[in-house]
Structure of C-type cytochrome:
Amino acid sequence: MKKVVNCFKTAALAAVLLASSAAYATTGVPVQGSANLKGKALMDKSDCNACHQMEVKVVGPSFKDIAKKYSADKTAVNKLSDKIIKGGAGSWGDIPMAPHPQVSKADASEMVKYILSLAPASGAKPAAKKS
């Protein structure tokens, strides 16, 4: 009986991993909870955290707010990769984003894919605000 239960657990885990992989392959954007370790590692080595944080606005918007705004945009990876490299202003207020010309297009794309993976799953309810 224990072997049967373990077999079902393994099959369920494999199904979840397969579904996550299929979603990533079709959209090019990782599903929430999937690891885009390269994008995260690139961001950890960069100066992103000087202006952005995971959940709160600092100088620029939070990574989660960026993910919410752009997760449904099919052109987001290209658009935001260019924004990382070239900089820009006006999307989130008056403070411009500094350009990062040293970042390659491929690396910027990996960073953006990681950020977009932070968007809440569709149909997810927002967390209740603390009073």
